[in-house]
Amino acid sequence: MKKIITLLTLIIVLLVGANAFAISGKEVMQSAKDRDTGNTMHALMGMDLVDDNGEVKPRTIEVWGITYNQEKDLSKSIMEFKSPASVKETRFLQVENDDRDDDKWIYLPALGRVRRISSSEGDSSFMGSDFTYDDMETREVEEDKHKLLRVEKLGKYECYVIESIPKDLEDAQYAKRISWVTKDHYIPVKVEMYSKKTGKVQKLLTVKQNIGKINGIWTIFNTTMKDLESGYSTKLYIKRSSSGAPYIEYNKRINPSRFTQRFLKMGR
């Protein structure tokens, strides 16, 4: 009888273990990339630059996004800085591509011209923030080797913990990333980004755990990118009205001409 009980216990442990890891790291990251983000998006956002002394420089940004290729799930986005005066009317256009790096352009009012951002500038700071140009784009799942390390609870969410190591390290900004991806929404709520120089965590992306649905789409309301080497951080968050409603909407018509270099320069 003891042998039978031991055998049954072993079978149960093996079955539970197999079920816990029935999904692969690659499948988790693909599900995160494929989650519904709407065909269009329009939001008013805040960007707070916080130095190592806690001093805050607030900015306001209006953002539009559109899926221009449904079959391949390719999108375009444009940002326009509304304040303060030092960055007002600066605009940034990004076009996602299927087989090459995203196209990126920036319009700087002081120069009065549109400048293309080259792929070699990917690790440069975006508008003085702790996000680089590469951080602003979605990394393709196939560019990395993904491993499911464990399943654990982070705050109120059960998460898959995924290690992602670049297949081509020279072409990547970080040595590896470890992501905590929620089981409920497939949203990364924490990402550790490891330095290629030191092998230590260089930057940490965290999402406040108040994820909610807007127009039926799971939405992140507040994100922080912290540079652990400098002590600086950047907070991105959706602005709210006096009633507390977030300034974001999905699947409302947006004129495709907004996602052009003409709009980038003229603002219309």
Characterise this structure.
The protein is mostly beta strands and 268 residues long. It has 3 helices and 16 strands. The chain has helices at residues 2-20, 25-34, 261-266, and strands at 40-50, 56-69, 74-83, 91-95, 103-108, 113-116, 144-154, 157-166, 176-182, 188-194, 201-207, 212-214, 217-219, 222-227, 233-238, 248-250. Strands 1, 2, 3, 4, 5, 6, 7, 8, 9, 10, 11, 14, 15 and 16 form a 14-stranded antiparallel β-sheet that branches. The radius of gyration is 21 Å and the shape is globular. The chain starts with a helix and ends with a helix. The model is unreliable at 12-19 (pLDDT under 50).
Detail the topology: elements first, then pairings.
Blueprint: H1 2-20, H2 25-34, E1 40-50, E2 56-69, E3 74-83, E4 91-95, E5 103-108, E6 113-116, E7 144-154, E8 157-166, E9 176-182, E10 188-194, E11 201-207, E12 212-214, E13 217-219, E14 222-227, E15 233-238, E16 248-250, H3 261-266
Antiparallel strand pairs: 1-2, 1-15, 1-16, 2-3, 3-4, 4-5, 5-6, 7-8, 8-9, 9-10, 10-11, 11-14, 12-13, 14-15
